C-alpha cells in the first residue's frame, strides 16, 4: 500500500502548524532571554558590587575550577584573605555568587533561611530526586509545620531512651570484629566505612522505625548497596557541565546521567522500604488509639500526622519523604574519627585512658554529654574538620541588606559595613572553609587538636563570633539547623567509646599517610594516590584493654 499523497490544503495547514510551533519557540525564547536580562540588570543595579577572583570562563564561571579542587574550603579561605570576608565569585553564563565568610552576615542569613533565603531550583531538583517533597525540600510555613511535627522525636528525653540502641549497634560491630579476629590468622580486612554505615543504618532503622535492617548481621540491603555505589560514580564531563549550568537551566539536572539514575535508584529503594515499614506500623497501630496518641517515635509521629486533620497534618508523600530524609541523614559519621585517631596515636591513647578510667560500663546519655570531656573534645574536633555538608547555596527571595562584623572593600574601593543583595542573588556559606579557617581558629586550624575544646575560653576572636553549635557551622544554624544533632552526637560518642575502649587502630602505612577527600554522595576519606576509597587501618594488639589479638586491617571503601 502507498502512503496517501497530501493535498495542497493539507500541506499549507501543516506548514502553518509548524510555523506556529517555531514562532512559539522563538517568542518564548526571546521573552525568556529578555526576562533574564531584566532580572540580571536589576540584580546588578541593586546589589553591592564586591571584589572577588577574576572570571576564567564565561560559560562555567569558576565552577569547573572549584569542582576540580580537592579542598574547595581552602580555596574559599584564600579568597577571603585576598578580598575580605564577603566577596563575589563568577558563576555560569556571566552570573555571580556572593560568598559569606563574615560571622555576623552568616547569622543574619541563617536567621532568614526558608523565607528570605530559599533553596535554588537546582538544589530542590536534586533533593526531590533523592528524598521527594518533604522536610528537606520544603520552605517557609510548610517547612515550619513539618519540622514542628518531627521535633518531639529528637528531644533530649527521646535520645536518652535511644542511647541503648546506639550501644547495641556498637556492640554488634565489636562482636563481629572479635569473631573475624578469632577466625583469622594474623591479619584480616575489614571495610571501616561500610561497617560504620551498617551501624548508622541499623541504628536509625531500630530507633526511628522499629525495624532491624540487620546490616550488622550481614543482611544485604538495597539502600546500603546503592549508597555505597554512589562513591564510585565519577561525574562525566557532560554531567559536570549539566551540573554547572543547572542553576540557569534546572531541567538539565533531570536528564538521565549516571548520577541521576543512581539517585533515582536510591530514592526508589528507600521509598520501597519506607512503604513496607509504614504499612506494617499502620496495621500494628490500628485500633490502638492510646498507643497512637502517646507514641513519640519518629514513625509514631509520622503516622499520627498522616491521620490528623489538625494543623500538623502530613500528606502521604510528605510522610514517605520524611522517612527517606532520615534514612539518608543518619548515614555514617565515625570513619573520620578512626582515621584522625590513627594519625595521632597519643590522642587515641589519651581518649582510651579517659574511657577506661571512667568506668567499665557504658556511660549513660547524660554522662556522654557531660562527664567525658576528652571524648567530647575529640568528637567536636572531628565535626569541625570534617563537616559532611561542606557548603550550601541559597537564592534571595527578596531584596535584603546584610550587616557585616567588619567593613569590607567593594569593587569600587569603598569601605562598607553592610551589603545589599537583590532578589534572585545566589548566596553561598562555605561551612567547611570557616570551620577550618586560620583567621578564625588560629595558625593550627588545619590540625587535629582536640585540646582546643577542653577550655572553651580558649576559643576566641572570629571563631567565637560564629553562631552555631559550639561555634561550628557543621550542623548549620537557624530554622534548618540539623534536627538530628543530639542524636548524631550521642550516637557518635557511644560508638566511639565502645570501639576505642576495645580496639586500638593504626594506619597501614603509619601515621603520616596522606588521607584526602573523595566525592561520594558526601565527601569521604581515601588514601592519596590509591584507587577507590580504601583507608586501611591496622588493628593492634592492645595491652591496655588486656586483649591478645592479631593484626586486623580495616579498609574504607
Ligand atoms: C554528624 C552527623 C550530622 C551532621 C554533620 C548533620 C548536618 C546537617 C546539616 C548541615 C543539615 C542542613 C542541611 C541543609 O540545610 O541543606 C542537616 C539537616 C537535617 N539533619 Fe542532620 N546531620 C547529621 C546527622 C543527622 C542525623 C543522625 C539525623 C537523624 C537521625 C539528622 C537529621 C536531619 C534532618 C531531619 C535535617 C533536616 C532539617 C530541616 O530541614 O529542617 N542529621 N543536618
UniProtKB/TrEMBL annotation:
Top-level division of the source organism's lineage: Eukaryota
Protein's recorded name: Cytochrome P450
Native species: Hygrophoropsis aurantiaca
